Amino acid sequence: MPFLKKKSFIPLFCMLFIIEINESRLFANNINNMKELLPEIITIQTAGYIGFVAIGIGHSYYSNFWETGLFYGYVPESIGGCDIHTIAWKNSFYPFEYAPLEKITVSPIYFGITMLCALDKNLYWHSATDAPQWEGYYFPTGIHFTFNIGFKILKESSSPNTYHSLFIEISSLDIYIKSYLYDDNEYLGLRDIATLAIGYKLILNILN
Fold first, then answer.
1. d(Cα 41, Cα 203) in Å, to the nearest integer?
2. Quick one: which of 16, 24, 155, 169 has the fewest CB in 10 Å?
3. Residue 44 clears pLDDT 90, i.e. is over it
4. Whole-model pTM above 0.85?
């Protein structure tokens, strides 16, 4: 069974970083302005399958309807049984928002999807070839997708073009969702397939 090599971290990170930079160039109004290549959003998050602690940088597009970012996450051995490093490409979509108070905006519900890559020699990125090919059973262990539903509150800072945001998400892995849908005996409940994530965002409107 082929396993993920540690040295795969370098080309993987470079690939995802290039994707993030290319998004900036594609969606920015003026690609010659170097400000548009700088991250607008800095995020710190705990849980949500990305890691015990994770930090990310990203951008927002379409009047803040879509946020996309690249994350690095870490789970220490004391929690995960071994040190686990992750790289994640996280996307969130905000269809609703309202302003209950001055300088405060609330997104009562938003949706997201994350591509999660775990970096460990004992994990593999494709279905096992030396095991019985039961449909949907032998998932890759090193790469997954998470599906997120969340709540976000945004507050304008006293500093120009600066915002602070707190968010809370319910997340589930693709393998957990499929197991839940195939669970004819109803052994699994929603609590068994979901986890809670909490995070903070510093948002800088650097183009203003």
1. 5
2. 155
3. yes
4. no
